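User: Predict structure, ligand pyridoxal-5'-phosphate.
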Amino acid sequence: MNSIGYNAQTITTSAAYILTDSRQISFPEQSIFFAIRGNRHDGHQFLPYLYASGVREFVVEENAFTEPLRKETEKWSDASIWVVPSSIRALQKLVADKRRNFHIPVVGIAGSNGKTIVKEWLVQLLSPGKRIVSSPKSYNSQIGVPLSVWNMGNEHELAIFEAGISQVHEMEYLQPVMLPTIGIFTNIGSAHDDGFKSRKQKITEKLRLFTKVRKLIYRKDYTAIDEEISLILRPVNSFLQTISWGKPDSGADISVICKPENTGTVISFSGLFGELRFETAFRDDASLENLTHCIIFMLDFGISAPVIQERIQLLKPVSMRLELKEGINHSYLIDDTYNNDIQGLLMALNFLSQQEQRQKKTVILSDVLQTGQTPGELYGTVAKLLKEKSVSHLIGIGKEICSQSALFDVPQKDFYKDTDSFLRDFPFDTLSDSMVLVKGARPFSFERIVHRLQQKAHGTVLEINLDSLSHNLNYYKSKIGQETKVMAMVKAFAYGSGSSEVAALLQYHRLDYLGVAYADEGVSLRQNGITLPIMVMNATMPAFDLLLQYKLEPEIYSRRMLADWIAYVNKNGAQAEIPAVHLKLDTGMHRLGFVKDDYEWLSEQLKQNPAIKVASVFSHLVGADEGVHNEFSRKQFELFMEGALRIEAALGYKTIKHILNSAGIVRFPDYKLDMVRLGIGLYGVEATGQEQHALLPVGTLKTIVSQIKYLSAGETVGYSRKGELKHDAAIATLAIGYADGYDRRLGNGVGHICVNGTLCPTVGNICMDMTMIDVTNASVDEGDEVIVFGKEVPITELAKRIGTIPYEILTGIGDRVKRVFYKE
Ligand SMILES: *Cc1c(COP(=O)(O)O)cnc(C)c1O
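Assistant: Predicted complex:
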């Protein structure tokens, strides 16, 4: 067919799936791929890979459709390729065209906070009795909205989507894609976003989602929203009917009063729907606001107050986190027990297949939430997905999945009619060395399964936010551009964060290189399924066999080491492929590396030993983070280039040249060369301090309150009676000590712990396993979780207080602290 249409305005496709990320293929023959070009990724690069994987429909951008690519695609006689000015706009148009075929109510949710929670809650509250399609997770972007709306089908009776924007004009594109008929404007934050001139502009831009809605629910207490609705929205939407709510004096259609009670909150309504009263276990303002939006929506939707009351009783806080943690029997657990529909399952399976740490992949799956398909169709799709993702063991739980058991073609399968019988009858010892995905719909209470399968934590956990890590990586990538490679430094247990899990994510992001300090760190990565090239910075002779066996590339830094390596290669070169090496030049650090006097000798040796392949030549700046060393950094660079070019001349081929670490990328972008070595920045600390705002914190160290005591002024706390109380105080003992990495210098008031939002100082000396803090001003109970560092207590601040650097805090976190990895 090969319909390369150069000005093809209309894309006609029968594809069921839209693909924008080449790493997430599930049904290639039924997918259409939109090649999207950002400043860090270019989807066009992956066309040949996708074609080889079976994808046959492609949308590409004029500017990126280069001559070589065009030549390549001309060979694909069975493929359709549409060349468009912008893939994102083409995607939006395709979905907008599809959207117009449906005539069901579509709820559009906009606002600064609460969009995802209101959406998820509405789905929970309305799904008894309604077949609903909704945005998966928080798919609310220029790409996320079309992907969500694409899932609409004839079986659906109601759609609920969210839309988020970060710049002006974005909503104009999302409005026709979603075409909501009912709007909910959750709220507006006071934070000033980079993409907008003012808060007012932010509101008017968000309101553009509602230019065609018949009804808009909003909170009148946000007077700026109220004003803009009258000024901007009404003139362009003459059908608009608003339902506003607010405090009794706000003049809203519905007055709402929230009153705390023993067991929760009572919400009283008066006005539009009469006098009504609802009880909920939620107490915090944000949840009450979100819940009020939901209740008003349901009232307007015709659901009676008693039914609403019954359903809101069952609501739980929304945690859409997908967690990766250590499980029993040397397994890993992926905990995604929030909901279970096909979209959610697909995402979880994609995450599962990214995890190379274990070969064996087990899926514990409940009945999948129905959306109008017959069980045969639904589980047929599920079975195909499991096969595509090479799942080795399926454990199905639920009556429906049991009845479809014959559909599943996996090496091992077991079925249980409910969670209880699984927990009672399953031989848990047999579940070992596996990557286990636990994915179940709410009613199945799969949290009980997670509880049974996970390694018990001792109260202190380091939570690693994988989304933040990706964000930080992308930030640095966008600074250096596509031409420069990235080596991520994952030495010292990935700066304390967990090497194989971090490395698996970096491998997923198709990074170029990983760097470790010692050979055994590299071996451990290989044993956990990491196939990226790995440089080992300090591999001495006894480790050479490991280098060969595990394809690890050594840094060569001295005459003696090069001589050893040459001798080793001459002896063993015939047996195995010899890894390439990386030459380290010492341009001022005076730690490891060849100095200027060695260059002549080095060049000569390399010429004489062509079996030694040099992958890269590099050096390290001693003071990239500080302006006072700028002159020195420049000298280092010059010295490095002189040496590197000389070595390349001797070799007769080009090598990868690199000198920048994280701080260097920020302060010396001109020196980025062929590759950069990214370390601390990946983990959320911007070493120069100049661009800290652009990074997201990655690690949150949490512990729990073991006990609370009420002591009088004059009493002392802890060893050596160091913590003498100046006032009557509530003292909490925490399950963390210096053996966990909470530095002893943080004792006696130097360190602060965040307790339910209040910073509380340490009292007395830090013990090996415990720390005491003054919680007199906090509201806290025994067993509560508290934050040692994270967003509330930045690592940089902690480091400063005890005169050290964030690197030391991060790498000092003890082995017995469990690492939990999660994605939003
Ligand atoms: C650790 C290390 C890096 C990374 O440094 P950051 O300051 O963490 O970015 C780069 N190069 C070498 C040689 C290193 O040892």
